Amino acid sequence: MRLITSPFPVSLRRPCSRSPAPRPRPYARLEYEMVAARRPETRWATRLIPVFLAGCVGFATYVVVKRICLDFYINDQKQSRTAAIFLAFYFVFLLLMLAAYLRVFLVIQYNPGVVPLGPRASQQKQHWNERPKRSKRGSRARDDDVESIRDVASRDENPDSPGLEDFYSKDVFVCDFDGRPLWCSTCCNWKPDRAHHCSELDRCVRKMDHYCPWVGGIIGETSFKFFVQFTFYTTLYCIIAISAGALCLKTLVASGAGVDGFVVGVFGIGGFFGLFTFTMTLSAGRYILVNLTNVDHLKSKTLVHQLAIRVPRGTEPGIDYGVVTYPLPKPISSPRLSGQTVAFEHLSKRDQLAVRTFAIVRTEIGENPWDLGYYRNWKSIMGSNIIDWLLPFNRSPCEGSETGESFYEMGPLYHELRTRFRLPELSEEKTERVPRGTRGEREMASVEKQRERRRQQQQQQQQRQPSQPPREHGSPSSSGS
Ligand SMILES: [Zn+2]
Fold first, then answer.
1. Average pLDDT, consecutive stretches of 10 residues, N- to C-terminus, the chain (481 residues)
2. 392 preceded by cis ω (within 30°)?
3. Is residue 455 part of a domain?
4. Entry pTM
5. Which residue in 160, 250, 407, 467 has a CA-CA distance of 20 to 30 Å to 104?
6. Amino acid 257: pLDDT
7. What pLDDT does 155 receive?
8. How far is the CA of 184 from the centre of ligand 1 (A)?
9. 94 to each of 100, 106, 238, 241, how far by Cα in Å?
């Protein structure tokens, strides 16, 4: 008899014969949801900064166009060609900068890439929203109570926990020490790979990079490409403004006409924002090439990834890895079955097909399982052609690229880990793969298969013994055999 070893105390699988209940699939598609910052001061900063930036751009446009190009170069110096070159570059980069800013701002407002709240957190949020306004303002202590309930929300230990299936239906996912996915105690939900909890929004965000009030909110999977384009074009825009201002000032000083305070102002603003965005562009470009986020990079010196990698059903734990088997076993009271093992062959064929075993392995410090190589990393975020790289229209290919295999495309390290830990190959199971889809769909597919097989057996039996009626399964005539 083959045995499956499970790290969980109880090992009988849950019955699959019950009717499949409809279950939400929170990670099946991206959630479009507007999420505001938690702290009022951050919300106000997020609203006021765009106004401040618009003022800076308006001032720079007035100085560069009116005072430098029109008044100084065309009317005073009679250098129309120089003015035309500056104006052309200025407006091209201004347009691209504004387009990228608008794109990143709208994406952050309407599709920030937040992970849906778990049922408990959703209920609390709904309860909070339904409370009268006066009550919301007046009782600070009660606010804290609501938050504190969420902050200490322990992991959902229910083997049927909503959303678990979206992890174990894949071939690899990031897991905790016992093979379950990572849990966010504030959102009360399982965290998809590479999601981090943002304290400003109080929500988990996919591929969170950082919170940026300059562009209106959180930079993550959905907005990172447009953010990089914005910083890149802002750098170029500032270079043009500084160049026009510097050339103008140089001529003014050389001719003894004195210094124009407006031009000095543009020089200062352009220098500040230019340096800032240039640094951001460089660091963001580096993260793109190595497929890291700002958060990943901060932890990269110490972070070890723990992955659940699918292995053939019934694989035993190895010397340096444990295993976990899904669906997770349900607690039972029978002392005879309360050990660490479950009789694999006692499960029906249908139940055996639904079982998926994962090896729990750890990477070395600094290893990145999603590193695809410089060029593929770049393409996964910026797009596959130069138009995508330069224009803020199409979204990053990695956005919504979740497949049946993994949340994000895995790099060569995935196969290296299989070799390093000598994990058995999946080739035996590949011939009889569990159908994708929800648990209900899988069960229905298995039931249909079983019915078809039974029909075929009955037909064969009828052909062999045409005079005798077919024996029904479970009928008195067959029960004694
Ligand atoms: Zn969270």
1. 36 36 41 72 86 94 93 88 94 96 93 87 73 54 47 75 89 93 92 93 92 90 95 96 91 82 90 95 95 89 91 89 87 49 54 83 93 95 94 90 88 94 79 47 51 60 49 34 28
2. no
3. no
4. 0.76
5. 407
6. 76
7. 83
8. 5
9. 10, 18, 9, 10
In a domain, 156, yes or no: yes
Q: What pLDDT score does 154 carry?
A: 83
Dist. CA 169–CA 410, nearest whole Å: 16
Note whether residue 447 is domain-resident: no
Contact 433, 426 (CB under 8 A): no
Which range of residues forms the domain containing residue 162? 40-166+209-297
CA of 294 from ligand 1 middle (Å) equals 17
The count of structural domains within the chain is 1
From ligand 1's centre to the CA of 148, what distance in Å?
Answer: 14
CA distance 396 to 398: 5
Pull the structure tokens for residue 104. 């990143």
Could you tell me the distance, in angstroms and rounded to a whole number, from the CA of residue 79 to the centre of ligand 1? 58
The angle subtended at Cα 78 by Cα 74 and Cα 79, nearest 5°, is 80
* Sheet of 356-362, strands arranged across: 172-174, 306-311, 356-362, 322-326
Residue 15 lies in a domain: no
